[in-house]
Amino acid sequence: METNKEKIRKICERFFIPKTLNDCYEFFRIYAECFFRFIENQAIKDETQISRRDAKLVTQMIFTKTLSLKKILEGIDYNSHDELKLNTIIDPTIIAILVRSIYETVLMFNVVYIQPKTDDERLILYNLWVHSGLSFRQRFKYNTTSKANKEKLDDELLQMEQLKTEIHNTSLYKSLSETNKKRIETRLKGRDYKIIFDENNDIQILHWQDIPIKMGLREGLFNNIYTYFSIYAHPSNVAVFQFQDMFKENTAFINLTMFNSKSVFILLGAFIADLLKLFPELLSVFEKLPYYYQISISFQWRTYQR
After folding, report:
1. What's the pLDDT score for residue 45?
2. 94: helix, coil or strand?
3. Entry pTM
4. Domain map (residue ranges) of the chain
5. DSSP 8-state symbol, 176
6. Residue 64 — φ and ψ, nearest 5°?
7. Calpha distance 50→127 (Å, rounded)
8. Torsion angle (degrees, nearest 10) of CA 214, 220, 226, 231
9. What is the pLDDT of residue 225?
10. Which residues pair with 6 in a beta bridge?
11. pLDDT value, residue 44
12. Contact 257/125 with Cβ under 8 angstroms?
C-alpha cells in the first residue's frame, strides 16, 4: 500500500521538472497561492521604513506577473465573423517578455535588499535604485504640459538631490577610495544602481548577466538567457522569423512555452528564498502551506544553487 510520503513524492515530481503544460499551469497556481499568503500577512500601511514598504510592493508585483503567466497558459483562440477559426495556441513570445520582466525584478530585489551587508550599503543601494528610476522620469519634463506634472518632476528633482546627499553623507562613502567614489557617481549619472561591495569595500559594477551567480545560482544556469528573453522584447528580425517557426509544428510553441516556464520557476524560487531572508517572519506563513507546495518551491531554489 502506498504511504503518504510516497504520495507526496509523486505529486512533487510533477513540479520538480514539469513535463506538461498542465504541470506548468498548476505550478504557477502554487506560486501564486504562496505569494498571496505572503501579501495577506504583510502590512504595508504599518511599515514605517519606506525601503521595506517598497520591498513588500515588489512582492505584489511578482504576484501579478505570476498570475499573468498562469492566465497566458490557458491559451488564446479566435473565431471570425465568417466562421474562420484560429485553434487554441499559446504565444511563447509574450511569456518571454514577462519572464524578462520577472528576471529583472528578482535580480533587482537581490542587489538592493539582499547583497548589502551593512546599513550604509543598504542605504546606498536603495538610494541608487530610487535615483535611477526618478532620473529616467526626468525625461518627461520636455514633453509634459500639465502644471501638476511639471511640479511633480520639480519635486522629484529635489528628491534626487536629497538621495545623493544621503549617499555622500554615509561613513562608507566618505571612506571609499576616489576610484570607488567615481564608480558611484557614474552610476548616478548613468541612471543605474547595479553594484556590489566586496569585503574590502571595493565596488564591482554588475550587469544583468552577472547577478544570478552573485545570488548563489549555479554558474552557467542563466548564461545568455537575458539576451534570449530580450530578443522577444524588441521587434528584431530574429523575433519575427522565430515567431514563424513556432507554429509550423503543433508542438513547437508548446516546447518553447515549457522552456520559458521552467526558467521562471527557478527565478520565483530564488525570489522566495530572498524574501524569507528579508522578512523571516514569513517563514511561518510558508510552513503553513501544503507540504508539497513547500517541497516543490524549495526544490527550484536548492537544486540550482552552486
Report:
1. 65
2. helix
3. 0.92
4. 14-302
5. S
6. -70, -35
7. 11
8. 170
9. 86
10. none
11. 66
12. no
The C-alpha atoms of residue 1 and residue 164 are separated, in whole angstroms, by 66
Q: Dump pLDDT digits (tens) for 59-96.
A: 999 999 999 999 999 999 999 988 889 888 899 889 99
Asked if 94 and 72 touch (Cβ cutoff 8 Å), the reply is yes
DSSP E strands, the chain: 76-79, 85-89, 195-197, 203-205
Q: What is the number of helices (H) and of strands (E) in the chain?
A: 14, 4
- What's the rounded Cα separation, in Å, for the pair 256 and 258? 5
For helices 178-189 and 147-168, give the axis angle rounded to 10 degrees. Answer: 170
- Mean pLDDT, 10 residues at a time, over the chain (306 residues)? 72 88 96 96 78 95 98 94 88 91 97 97 98 90 77 90 98 97 96 95 94 91 86 80 79 89 95 96 96 94 82
In angstroms, rounded to a whole number, what is the distance separating the alpha carbons of residues 192 and 211? 14
Backbone angles phi, psi at 205, to 5 degrees: -80, 130
Taking Cα atoms as reference points, which of 125, 151, 130, 131 lies closest to residue 140? 151
Using an 8 Å Cβ cutoff, are 166 and 127 in contact? yes
The Cβ-side half-sphere exposure at 37, using a 13 Å CA radius, reads: 20
Residue 88: how many other CB atoms lie within 10 Å:
10
Question: How far apart, in Å, are the Cα atoms of 142 and each of 137, 147, 149, 158, 191?
Answer: 11, 12, 11, 17, 18
133: cell is 528610476
**Span between the terminal Cα atoms of the chain, in Å:** 38
- From 287, 273, 295, select the one nearest 37 (Cα to Cα): 287
Give the three cell numbers for residue 109.
530585489
Give 261-289 pLDDT, tens digit per residue.
Answer: 999 999 999 999 999 999 999 999 999 99
